[in-house]
Each structure stands twice: as C-alpha cells, then as structure tokens.
Design goal:
It contains 27 helices and eleven strands. It is globular. α14 links the parallel β1 and β2. Strands 1, 2, 3, 4, 5, 6, 7, 8, 9, 10 and 11 form an eleven-stranded mixed β-sheet that branches. The longest helix is centred in the middle third of the chain and has 38 residues. 58% of the residues lie in helices and 11% in strands. α2 crosses α12. The protein has four domains: 29 residues; 237 residues, MetI-like (MetI-like fold, Orthogonal Bundle), CATH 1.10.3720.10; 147 residues, D-Maltodextrin-Binding Protein, domain 2; 164 residues, D-Maltodextrin-Binding Protein, domain 2 (3-Layer(aba) Sandwich).
Length: 628
C-alpha cells in the first residue's frame, strides 16, 4: 500500500514538473492583462488577435505547407525504403538502418547546421531547403513505424498471390497494404508531428522571409513574449498532443477474436472506426487549413522587387511594413534575430544576402572596420533630415564620418526601482549596488558588458576599459556583490519588478519604461557617474542586392507617421524629432523613454572589442557566474 501511494505521488510530481509551465502558459493565454504577473480577467482576445496578425498567419501558412508536403513525401519515400530494407539480408539491413537512423541519433542542431552548410554551397536558403531538410529528418521515423509491420506480415502470402497470377501492384494492394497500412499512417502522423513542432532544423535552413510558428516564436523574445504568442503556443501544444495521441492509438493492434469476446470485438471495432474518423479529420483539417491559409496569404504577397531586412525581434510595427509595401510596390522579406552576436553570425555565414540591417552600435563599428558596410546616399533619403542632429553626433563613436548609418532607437542603462521599497536619493550613485543595503532585493542584468559597466563607472573607469588590471578590480567588486544579488535577469526584469519581487534592478531604459507602465510605483534613474548610451541603427551591408530599395525603405522609416507607429510599438526613445514633439508632457519628462541631454552627456557608447579583449571579458564573466 505504501509503495503504491509513493509511486502515485512520484508520478504526480513528475507530471507536475513537466506540465506546470505549460498550464501557466495556457492560463496566461486567457489573461486580459498583457502582464504575466497581473490577472486582468478572462478573455479570448489573444486567440482572436492570433488570426488577425499577418505575421502569425504567414508563419502558420508556411508551417502547414511544409508539414503537409514533408509528411506526404517522407511517408512515400520512407514506406518504399522500409519495403526495400525488409527484403535485404540481415547484415545489409543493419547497415542501412544505421545510416537512416543518423538524423534521429544526431542532435537536431547538428543536423540543422550540417544541412545549412550543404545548402549554402549549392542553392539559396528558403522554402525549398526547409522542405528538403524536413523530408530528410522525417524519413527515419516513417521507416521506424512501417518496418515492424512488414516484419509481422507473412511474405509467403504475397508470393502466393503472385503465383496465382496477381500483378505485383495488385498483390501489394490486396495483401501487403492491409498489413502495413496502420504503420504507414502512424509514420505519416509522426512526420506531421515532427515537422509541425520542429525548430532547430528549420531555423538553420530557412531563408529570409520564411518563418514557421516555432521560429517566429523564438525570434520574438527580445522584449518578452506577447500574449498572442501564449495563445499561439497553447494551440500548437494541443495540436501536437492530439497528433501524438492519435499516433499511439493508431499503433495499438486490435486483439485477435476469441469465442468468448464478441462484445469486446464489437467495442474494438467501434474504437477502430473512431480512430480512423479522428485521423481522417486531422488530415482533412491539415489539408484544408494549408490551402485556405495559403490562398489568403498569396493574395497579400507583393509581386514587385524585393528587399531583405534583418532586425531585432519585435522591433517594428507590422503595419509599417504593410504600408511601405502598398506605397512603394516593393516586397519586404523580413528576418529577425535575438541579440547582436546572433545577427553577426547570421550575416557572416553568407546564407542570406541582406539589403538592410538594424543592430547595435558596437557591432556596426566592427562590421565597418571589416569593410562589410556600404556608404549611404543620404540624398536619396530626404526624410533623414527628421533625425535629431544630437543623436547623429553621438553616433560618431561608431560611425565617425556619418557615412554608414541611420539611427533607429536609443536609450540608457540605469536602475529601475520601487518607490515604496527604495529611496531615490540612495540610487544617485552606482555605490548603491555594493553597499549591502539592498541585499537579497537586487536584480543585476545578465549581460557581460552591462554588468561590468556599473562596476567600471564606480571605479572611475570607462565602460570600454580593456586594461586587464582595471578589469580585475571591477571583477572584484562584482564578486563581492554576487551574494547580495537576488537574480541575474534580462527579459524577466520587467515582470519581476512589476510584481514587486525586488526593490531595485539594473536594466535598459526600454524595459524600465515597460515595467513603469504596468506598475506606477516604479521609477528609473541613471546614476551620476554615468552609464551606457546604446544606439540601434540601420545600415546597408555589402551583401545588398537592391540598394535603391534599401534607401527607399530607410527613407520611409524616418518619415513621421511610421516613426510614431514604431515608437508606440517598441516604446524606446526615438531619434525622430516629430515623435518627440508630439508626445504628451508626462511622456516627454519620463527619463526612461526620453533621456534628457543632461543624462546623455555623461553616458558612453560601447565600442567594439578585439577578439582577445572580448575573450577576457567573457572569461571574467564566466568566473563570476560560476562563483570563482
């Protein structure tokens, strides 16, 4: 009895550990508040918004098309391969099965990278490369489902049918197919499941403008997940769960009839009908959804010239891209990334020829020094005059001659604090991070350069310091501070501070503004020693295939209405003068949204490091996080 109770408790804990995060996600998908820490009542609006979003619908369309095509093709190839392998001698079977199982045994990321490297050599990345990769990945799973059914079948029955005059095709249809059909269908559903939920392989083999649901979810994490994505994740989870249930039900074999089990036989026959009905319904929905969404999506696809844009995730209003396409006739292939280092890797891989890119200051400086950036013709961008000259001047740290960039958003690194739990006067200096007053109630930023910046400022050094002895001193005070830190966060800081789980937090001004919008008891300050001024800017890379289109895009981005839409969407400081002028008084005075000149004058822009300098920072950071 005790063992049974213990085993039930053990299983309950396992399921709780596995599914509690998913339950939380599902609950949040019905939360009327956009905050993940504040319940605003029940709503279905986020699910409605999913189907109104063109980005989500485009990703949904691509996902369905790839899933259906990959599943059908891999099922045909996998079934034929299984038939061929079953006819081989045992030694040859072992060799061929070992070869076909490589995609299953390999880590997905290894398979994805290896396929990307192969495709880049011979073709452009895009829909076709993702489809080929999914087919290759799915074939072993089809073989895995079909081959056992072939082994269970009596091959002599097939041979007898041939001896009786049946053609090979007719004998296969009448004899072999009934034996293996359940395995083929299970293999098909398994292929659907694998394609529908795949991320790693898709991520490395997709091209610009190609997004599936999984890759779109990943690339929109820079500022945290929007509620629409909670809803989308819930739909995706239940779809995959339903498919897995059908696969497992379909693979169960109806027991052989006995004289005493007529009722049981009828029950299993009824269950078989239900299984087939559910399975056919799923496939029908998949097919109908694929073509209906594809038809709608095709109507919205531009037919003119294209430009390929690379930008941070969730860093532009969708309507701006739509209106740009309508006004210019250009089609935008829009690609996203999560952090500057990822952007650098994607660009340098050469897999996609980008026309225009937005990223952070120090990465742009690095690319300029490597000769990867083309000069701009500002005469083709009359709206460039809308950019605040002061921000252009500040860009001189990474674009000294103002030849290569157009500022997009900017902000600072500072301290977000709860006015009920912390005194603003205590936070006028970075010393507040080291004096122990906020022990256990302080969040530090989980970023090597941004964590070292306050320490370097406290010691009177530049945030671009590279002297090993000075960095060691900064490391020492960070190490002494570590026991006082509640957690090292980036995206989570907004929700944690809004929920009042900490008194102060080092974070970016944009995250601070978002948290202050949720909780009015929060405020933001940049200490007197100074801090980092970050400037995200657009540039045209050497890979550009449509320079005039890229400049037309940048000119549009700098115009008043798109700039205001982007500001209201991103909520970071805009360098466009009309955006600043048209804000209400409270917003203008919000230092997290619009850093005043007095603050900007004591801030520095990050400079690009050499590989050795970056390695030194990373080593110190790893030692700090490891507690060494």
């Amino acid at each position: 009895m005790v063992k049974k109770i213990a085993s039930k408790i053990y299983m309950a804990l396992i399921f709780l550990f596995l599914y509690l995060p998913i339950i939380v996600l599902m609950v949040l998908s019905f939360n009327n508040s956009s905050s993940s820490v504040k319940w605003g009542g029940f709503t279905l609006d986020w699910y409605k918004n999913c189907f109104k979003s063109e980005n989500i619908m485009s990703a949904f369309s691509t996902t369905l098309q790839i899933t259906l095509l990959a599943a059908v093709i891999s099922t045909i190839i996998g079934t034929l391969a299984a038939i061929g392998i079953s006819a081989m001698k045992k030694k040859n079977q072992t060799i061929y099965l070992g070869a076909t199982n490589i995609p299953m045994l390999n880590a997905d990321i290894v398979t994805g990278i290896s396929m990307m490297l192969l495709f880049v050599k011979f073709m452009d990345l895009g829909f076709v490369t993702v489809l080929i990769a999914h087919i290759t990945f799915n074939i072993p799973y089809v073989i895995l489902n079909v081959l056992p059914k072939l082994k269970q079948a009596n091959k002599y029955t097939y041979e007898a049918a041939l001896d009786l005059g049946a053609s090979p095709l007719y004998a296969f249809y009448k004899v072999t197919w009934p034996e293996i059909s359940s395995g083929v269908f299970s293999g098909f559903l398994m292929a659907v499941t694998m394609s529908l939920d795949d991320f790693s392989i898709t991520y490395f083999t997709k091209g610009a403008g190609v997004n599936t649901l999984s890759t779109m979810l990943y690339t929109q994490l820079k500022k945290g997940v929007k509620p629409e994505l909670y809803a989308l994740s819930t739909i995706l989870f239940f779809t995959v769960l339903l498919l897995l249930v059908v696969v497992n039900i379909n693979s169960n074999k109806t027991p052989a009839p006995t004289s005493s089990s007529e009722k049981l036989i009828k029950r299993f026959k009824r269950r078989s009908v239900v299984k087939r009905t559910v399975s056919i319904a799923i496939v029908s929905v998949l097919v109908i959804g694929c073509f209906s969404v594809f038809a709608v999506n095709s109507k919205n696809t531009g037919t003119g010239m294209t430009i390929t844009v690379l930008n941070y995730g969730k860093y532009i209003d969708e309507s701006v891209l739509d209106s740009f396409e309508e006004e210019t006739g250009l089609t935008v292939k829009y690609e996203e990334y999560e952090d500057p280092e990822e952007m650098y890797t994607k660009y340098k891989s050469g897999a996609i020829d980008y026309d225009v890119i937005c990223t952070s200051d120090y990465i742009i400086e690095k690319l300029i020094s490597e000769g990867e950036v083309l000069p701009m013709d500002y005469d083709n961008m009359p709206n460039y005059q809308n950019v605040e000259p002061e921000i252009i001047d500040m860009s001189a740290s990474f674009d000294p001659k103002h030849k290569y960039t157009v500022p997009y958003f900017y902000g600072t690194l500072g301290i977000l604090y709860n006015k009920k739990l912390a005194d603003k006067n205590d936070l006028s200096s970075w010393d507040c991070l080291w004096n122990g007053k906020y022990k256990g109630n302080m969040i530090m930023i989980n970023s090597v350069r941004d964590a070292f910046a306050p320490a370097l400022e406290t010691l009177g050094y530049s945030i671009n310091e590279t002297d090993p002895s000075k960095l060691d001193k900064a490391y020492d005070i960070l190490k002494k501070q570590a026991p006082d830190v509640l957690a090292y966060y980036v995206d989570e800081t907004c929700d944690e501070m809004a929920a009042e789980n900490a008194s102060i937090a080092v974070c970016y001004s944009g995250e601070a503004a978002s948290a202050m919008d949720i909780n009015p008891d929060l405020d933001y300050v940049v200490p007197k020693e100074g801090s980092n001024l970050w400037i995200d800017s657009w540039f045209i890379p050497k890979t550009c295939q449509n320079k005039s289109g890229a400049e037309e895009f940048l000119n549009y981005i700098c115009s008043d209405e798109p700039a205001m839409l982007n500001f209201e969407y991103v909520y970071y400081a805009s360098p466009i003068r009309s955006v600043i002028e048209n804000q209400d008084a409270d917003l203008k005075e919000n230092e997290a949204v619009n850093p005043p000149k007095e603050i900007l004058s004591r801030c520095e822009v990050y400079r690009a490091f050499t590989d050795d300098e970056a390695a030194l920072y990373n080593t110190l950071w790893q030692n700090l996080k490891a507690g060494n």
